[in-house]
Amino acid sequence: MTGYPKHLRDPAASPAPGAPAAAEGAGVASTFRPELQGLRAVAILMVVCYHIWFGRVSGGVDIFLLISAFLLTGSFARKLETGSALQIPSYWIHAFKRLLPPSAIVILGSLAGVFLLLPEERWRELIAEAVASGTYWENWLLAFRSVDYYAADHSTASPFQHFWSLSIQGQVFLLWPLLFALAALAAKILRARPRTVMLVLFAAITAASFAWSVHLTATDQTFAYFDTRTRLWEFSLGSVIALVLPSIERRLRYRQADGAQGVAALRAGAGWIGLALILSAGWVIDVEGAFPGYVALWPLLAAALVIIAGPTGTRWGADRLLSSRPLQWLGDISYALYLVHWPLLVFGLVLRDSTHASPKLGTALVAASIVLAWLLTVLVDAPIRTSRSLRASWWRGGLVIVTSLALILGTTTAWTRALDRQEQELLAEAATNNPGAGALAPQYEYQGDASPELLPPPDKRTSDWFALSGTCADHGVPDDLAQYCGFEGDGSGPLLVVAGNSRDEQFAPALFETAKARGWDVMLVVSGGCAFSTGEPVPPDCNAHNQALMSWMLELKPDAFASASTFLPAAGPDAEQPMTGIADLQQPMLDVGIDVIGYRDMPRLPRDPFECHETDGEDCRIDVAEQYLPENPQPQVTVGEGTGRYYSVDAVEEMCPGRVCVPIIGNVFVWMDGSHISAAYARTLAPAVDGQLSAQGWSWG
Questions:
Q1: Which GO CC annotations does the UniProt entry carry (predicted)?
Q2: CA within 20 to 30 Å of 625's CA: 221, 321, 471, 502, which one?
Q3: What is the dihedral of CA 345, 349, 355, 356, to 10 degrees?
Q4: 384-393 per-position pLDDT tens digit
């Protein structure tokens, strides 16, 4: 997504090897085609306007990807056909010394915006995204976080989210030269034409990647959107076009030279059809819900039509519009414009406390984006591009890359360490300042600071998930359960296992804190959505998971096993119900001598606890009494002599005193969201839970 370097506009200029905007022709001669620069401008305008004004996805990014590979392939194809050295390290240095400095400036500016405008609870996740953006794996980070790229409210989006496409592009800029080297080797071994080998190679990549894209888009569209593998065909299609275009061009020139003037009109008409299809793609097809599967063919084939139409020699062809000075200028700043428009949109919406840009705000954002993009191009990109000293030595170009990365990584590392120190200081004072559930004890008297910091730290309040640091690899865990299993301990103590879904995961510290303090090993086996049950409320595919878990427990024979014994499927009246089939799962474990702990499910809040706290402050109270049955329903298990014992835990009162939930207890945020308590608060439940177990005869040994 880079602008075309001005010094390459001269057809006689030697193209920089593999530059993001290298000369277009795939033949031996280098001829600059200004209509492609204009096509860049159209694509970037679509991206910016669709994002800012319409809240839609245009398909313009996909056109950028295709053009990038088209240009890159032309440069390397010329080298292979003329027998020139590929100089792959030089290409990498040349490309990334151009790409990284503008990216670093925008990333650092966005980090400043994060610090000044966004809440602290988002800082860590956005710092991680800044690192991923600067090191070209932001797309994978977003894929595994399952980010909704189509969220209508861009004020909640990441200011780094648009780096997903630049990350894929950077990965391809690393991979493609290696593929050209492979093609060169294969051509030498097979004694074949390099162009033929390259064409077969990129056609195969196109077919394989397109098939995977269609499949994954149909099964997991959110992940597919950011998956490099589903996008490779968009690049390889550009490479295929670059490789076959010289042959097409020769035929078209021959026809025109032979007097078939209708060919020029046909090319001009094809260019306008392609441009019309490009401009209409975001409105006519479901770009949001179906990309990047087969529907991505629309903008890409439309762009291919414009590329193949090429210079028409007519006065009315689309190439005349695309070659106009305004579009050429926008093409020059297209890379910078893509970089700056998204963070400006995100921060602009935050400042206006809005979810959509009004026409007035949208116009201001577009104008500001263009101005900033021009400044970034003139002040950063152009000096680097035109510097003779940087071209004279590879190490100077490498120094630009290292400096850019150092600015990004140095800033993010320093910020992360500051957050770590803040968290350590909070935890060091937690026993005094943050009693959590301990503040509910009848004789408790607060001895801490007058205005203590609250736990969890701001950057973890909406993501305070509990996890164990080790794996279950040394405990015979079946392969189908290994990914769900965590372990801590030295392997010599008694073993306590907590299992279930994410709500069990968040309750686990209430048991594990005391267990670890008494020398027990602890194990957590959780799968999102899979409560430890034989039927509803879990999805059908969880039954196999739970049966495998129970079979392993009977083989492992831990000293104690704990899971929820009741379930609240919704935040409504009389929602509590005994966990389906819980007795059938617990009884076999009791029969082989495993002690079983069944705890009552945590409430579900009908309101977001953080929104409630910010809106109502100290008066925020949520009554959940109607969610629960009058008495804790106990599973009908049989406990005989020589079997394990059954213990019941009801910590609802410690989470919501008097069945009334409040956001903060004892200077600790109780809730992470409306369905999960925070790990920080769960840890403070340990004394109360231990008291209930001790009252029933439990002994930690």
A1: membrane
A2: 502
A3: -50
A4: 988 888 888 8
Asked whether the beta carbons of 312 and 267 are under 8 A apart, the reply is yes
Same domain, 397 and 529: no
Count CB-CB contacts under 10 A for residue 395: 9
Give helix 228-257 / helix 262-284 axis angle, nearest 10°: 160
Cβ distance 270 to 319 under 8 Å? Answer: no
Residue 581 lies in a domain: yes
| Cβ neighbourhood burial of 183 (10 Å; 0-12, 13-18, 19+) | buried
Q: Check if the beta carbon of residue 7 is closer than 8 Å to that of residue 386.
A: yes
CA 372 to chain centre: 26
Place of tokens 């203590």: 452
- C-alpha 660/C-alpha 656 separation (Å) is 5
The number of domains in the chain is: 2
Is residue 155 within 8 Å of residue 355, measured between CB atoms? Answer: yes
Is the Cβ–Cβ distance between 484 and 525 less than 8 Å? yes
Q: How far is CA 547 from the centre of its chain?
A: 33
d(CA 323, CA 329): 10
Three-class SS state of 351: helix
Q: How far apart are CA 286 and CA 584, in angstroms?
A: 47
Query: Distance (Å, rounded) from C-alpha 373 to C-alpha 377?
Result: 6
What is the distance of C-alpha 39 from the center of its chain?
A: 29
Count other C-beta atoms under 10 Å from residue 54's C-beta. 15
Q: Determine the Cα–Cα distance for residues 201 and 191; give it in Å rounded to an integer.
A: 15
The whole-number average pLDDT for the span 509-517 is 95
How many whole angstroms separate alpha carbon 376 and alpha carbon 162? 17
HEC letters along 385-444: HHCHHHHHCHHHHHHHHHHHHHHHHHHHHHHHHHHHHHHHHHHHCHHHHCCHHHHHCCCC
Which residues span the domain enclosing 576? 462-695
Q: Which of 49-63, 298-312, 442-456, 595-609 has the lowest mean pLDDT?
A: 49-63
Domain-embedded: residue 424: no
Q: Residue 596: beta bridge partners?
A: 561, 646
In the structure encoding, which two tokens stand for residue 418, read together?
């500051």
Contact 318, 306 (CB under 8 A): yes
Distance between CA atoms of residues 75 and 225, nearest Å = 29
Report whether 495 contacts 523 (CB < 8 A): yes
- Record the tokens describing residue 530, joined without a space: 């899979």
Q: Do the domain assignments include residue 430?
A: no
Cross-strand bridge partners of residue 669: 664
> CA 640 → CA 377, 553, 595, 658, 694, distances in Å?
79, 20, 12, 35, 20
Q: How many CB atoms lie within 10 A of CB 367?
A: 10
**Cβ contact 621:661 at 8 Å:** yes
DSSP state letters, 278-293:
HHHHHHHS-HHHHTTS
Considering the domain architecture, whether residues 345 and 478 belong to the same structural domain is answered as no
Output the pLDDT for position 680. Answer: 94
Strand partners, 561: 497, 596
Which amino acid type is present at position 416?
T
How many angstroms separate the CA atoms of 137 and 163, rounded? 9
Tell me the pLDDT band of 537, cut-offs 50, 70 and 90: low
- pLDDT above 60: residue 22: no
Tokens of 637: 């298990």
